[in-house]
Each structure stands twice: as C-alpha cells, then as structure tokens.
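Structure in, sequence out. Go:
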C-alpha cells in the first residue's frame, strides 16, 4: 500500500462523532500523539489503522481510498477547463496548478465536491439563460431546468460504486432458493414465474418497437422476443421477477436516491431491476469465484454461465461487496459515432461530461477487428495507466432490411490489477513507453503533440503561426485572386 495521508478526513470523522482526539485515540487503541500526527498529515494512514476504524465505527475503508481523490481531481480539471478566460485557469492571471488541485481533492474532498456541484448548477443556469434568449413567447419565464433523467440515474449508480448491496444480497438468496443452475437459469425462472405468480412465458415474433419483453399482467403472460438465446431469456425473466418480487425495494431505493422527478425515479427502477436480474443470473459468490479462477477470462465466464460478452462485462463492474471485492472495473458501451450508451465505474475512472472521447482508445479500434478481443495498455495525462479490453457486439434486426445494433463494449481496470487478468499476458505492463497515450477528450486533454487532436483544449489560446502551424482546424483555401491567376 502506498503512503496515504488522510488527515482532514480523519478529523472530519472525529468531528462527526463529537469526539476529542484523546477519545478517538482511546477508541482506536492509539496514542494521542500518534493520532495527532495522522491528523496533521505527518504520518500516513496505515492498513491496521484503517481496519481499526472499520471495526470500531463500521466505516467503509473506501472512504479513505485514493479512488475518490482521483475522481475529484478529474472533475476539478474539467471545471477549470470549462471556465471562460479570465475566470480561473489559463488566461486569468493566476492559473490553478495540478498540484493545488491534488491538494484540494486529497485534503478537503467535501469542498471539492461542493465546487463540482456549484459548477453543475452554473452550467444549468447558463442553459436556462440560453433558452430564455431563444424564448419567443414574450413571457420571459422558464421552468427550472433539472439535469436529464438518465444523467441523474447514472450519477446515482456512480455514487454507489456501481454496487447495490441490498439487491445483490437478495438476488443471491433467491438464486439459491430457486435452484438456479449456471447456463440453465431460464428453466428455473420460468417455473418460478408460473408457480409463484401464475405467469406463463411465451415467444412472440413481432413485439412493438423491437422490445425484448412485454408483460401482460391481466392475462398472466410474459412475451419474450423470438430468437433470444438462453442467457438473454433468463435475463428478461429475471428482470420481470425483480418488478414482481422486489418492487417495494426498487421503489425504496429510487425514492431515497434524491432524484428530481418521476421520470428519473422510473428510470432508476428499471436500472435497479436490471441490476437485480444480472445478480440473479450471475450470483455474487459463485460468479466471483469463477471469475478469479478463470483470471477474468470473459469468454470462459460467458460459456460457463450461458450469457453474452456484454452481460459478463457489466456484471464484473459490480463486484464490490466490502467483504469480498473483485477487481474494480470500469464498463463502457459505445457506438461507431462515439455515443456512449452505457458507462459504469466501480472505481476512480472518470468519464468526461463535456463531450468527446479519445480516438486512440481501443474501444474504436475494436470496430476494425470484429469478433476479436482487443487489449490495450493506456496511459492518461495524469500518469495513471490502465488495462482495457474491448470487443464488438452486434445484434441482428430480425429480418432483411431491418437495421441491427452494433456496439464496442470495453472493460478496464487500473494497471495495478492487470496481472490478475488473463489479458495481461505478453503485455509490457511496467514499461511506460509501451502504454498508448490517451485522454478524456480533446476539450480537456493537454497533450499538445497528439496526432489525433481535433481542436485545442477549452480555455487555451490557439497557437497561430504562419511559419510553424501547431494546429490547423481545417485546410485553408487559396485566395480567390491567386486561384484566378493560376
């Protein structure tokens, strides 16, 4: 474990419980002078002390992890990049250095989160002003403009590190009680629907809007799209069982998430039901043991549990039970145009919120190699390195002329966890030169020499030099008169 200085967080823990230094030192069986050194960042917080804090106060040790610090650093850098010239960052007369950002994120995380929240409200206010300027009604009154529902739900899962313990535990109990077998869960789930709820499962050729599941409560009928594989059928039945048997818990979790409206809460219930379904088909303990035994070989796990590549990747990103953690993964699904339709993170990797992803990322290279898993060791501008694996998944439209779906699905982890993955074999994990330099996107990436840069970072002046062009956004046409003379 590297040296971790968490003095401010330790003081905050003490203040929250109304304890003096002497009282906290006594509770943790430490000397008062040693605790004072910890709080003043003169000594690093060690694993034994963390375990004592967990045992005495029941505090999750992730609260003292540097994963949260990395998320805050990335968010603060985006805030500074998004500020106009003259308001912080470059061009303001006093730039905020990366060292100062790190100090704020590490020492005062609550302040950092407050700044991020204020910036989000600032951007929402700008959007309302822009809408007001385009208002043609003459009333000049705009309703509040909350964040989009899917963004709220995404942030809810992100705040929980993509692990919903209540649903995971319930799903594991149900899987044991109902006798679900790996690769054959669909049989037991169909039986559960029929016996416990009087619901028959039938195949249907033409469901509306390319839906995969339609539930008719009054008729006691669950229609599944024809052509689904066994794992897909199991997932759809498990999702319906989540609504039938865990409805109250889904509602409680959605209501307690602090979401802004009914649409966001409804979307949260769907996301939570899908989470329960994945946990039911791939029970936590059995799946984690299988994943560790297979060194996280996604295809092997898919064959063992009868599910697809994307389902395995998504489930791997949720294995963060405090008593039995798997590798903390990030999961992403993107199309050819760069639209991110799914993104989940169990750790510090922070997906950019201000547009664009990096074309050097292997999630795009996977489209050129369909059917193959494409590994990549990638390094971010802050020096952190990651191992990513990506593969294209596709789904037929169901008939001639019907558009299908095609996505690149990627799973990534911090380089320190890479040796646990089968995909690290043969890769130069310790060689910095072997890593591909990528970024969060051109708007926030400071790699000036990147050959794929599309435009300069936000807030940075464009270097315009007739004799030495560092950046040309588009070819400059010849003057009209010169063209005429030629």
């Amino acid at each position: 474990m590297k040296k971790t200085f968490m003095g401010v967080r330790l003081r905050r823990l003490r203040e929250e419980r109304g304890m003096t230094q002497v009282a906290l030192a006594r509770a943790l069986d430490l000397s008062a002078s040693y605790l004072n050194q910890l709080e003043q960042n003169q000594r690093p917080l060690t694993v034994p002390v963390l375990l004592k804090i967990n045992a005495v106060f029941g505090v999750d040790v992730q609260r003292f992890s540097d994963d949260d610090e990395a998320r805050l650093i990335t968010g603060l850098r985006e805030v500074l990049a998004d500020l106009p010239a003259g308001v912080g960052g470059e061009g303001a007369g006093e730039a905020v250095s990366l060292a100062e950002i790190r100090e704020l994120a590490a020492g005062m995380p609550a302040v950092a989160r407050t700044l991020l929240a204020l910036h989000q409200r600032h951007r929402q206010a700008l959007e309302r002003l822009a809408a007001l300027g385009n208002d043609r009604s003459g009333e000049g009154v705009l309703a509040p403009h909350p964040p989009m529902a899917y963004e709220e739900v995404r942030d809810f899962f992100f705040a929980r590190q993509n692990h919903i313990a209540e649903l995971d535990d319930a799903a594991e109990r149900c899987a044991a009680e109902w006798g679900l077998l790996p690769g054959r869960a669909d049989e037991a789930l169909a039986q559960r629907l029929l016996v416990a709820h009087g619901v028959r499962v039938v195949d249907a050729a033409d469901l509306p809007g390319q839906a995969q599941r339609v539930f008719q409560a009054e008729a006691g009928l669950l229609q599944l799209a024809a052509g689904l594989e066994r794992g897909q059928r199991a997932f759809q039945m498990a999702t319906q069982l989540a609504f039938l048997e865990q409805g109250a818990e889904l509602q409680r979790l959605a209501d307690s998430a602090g979401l802004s409206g009914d649409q966001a809460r409804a979307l949260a219930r769907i996301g939570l039901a899908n989470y329960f379904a994945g946990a039911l088909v791939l029970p936590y303990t059995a799946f984690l043991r299988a994943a560790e035994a297979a060194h996280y070989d996604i295809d092997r796990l898919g064959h063992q549990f009868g599910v697809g590549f994307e389902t395995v990747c998504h489930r791997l990103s949720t294995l963060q039970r405090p008593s039995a953690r798997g590798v903390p993964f990030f999961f992403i699904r993107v199309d050819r145009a760069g639209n991110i339709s799914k993104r989940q993170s169990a750790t510090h990797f922070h997906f950019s919120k201000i547009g664009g992803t990096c074309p050097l990322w292997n999630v795009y290279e996977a489209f050129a190699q369909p059917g193959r898993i494409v590994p990549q060791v990638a390094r971010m501008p802050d020096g952190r390195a990651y191992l990513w694996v990506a593969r294209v998944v596709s789904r037929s439209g169901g008939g001639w002329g019907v558009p299908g779906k095609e996505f690149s699905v990627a799973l990534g982890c911090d380089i320190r966890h890479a040796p646990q993955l089968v995909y690290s074999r043969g890769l130069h994990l310790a060689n910095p030169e072997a890593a591909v330099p990528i970024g969060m996107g051109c708007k926030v990436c400071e790699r000036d020499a990147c050959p794929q840069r599309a435009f300069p970072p936000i807030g940075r002046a464009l270097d315009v030099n007739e004799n030495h062009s560092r950046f040309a956004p588009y070819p400059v046409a010849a003057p009209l008169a010169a063209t005429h003379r030629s």
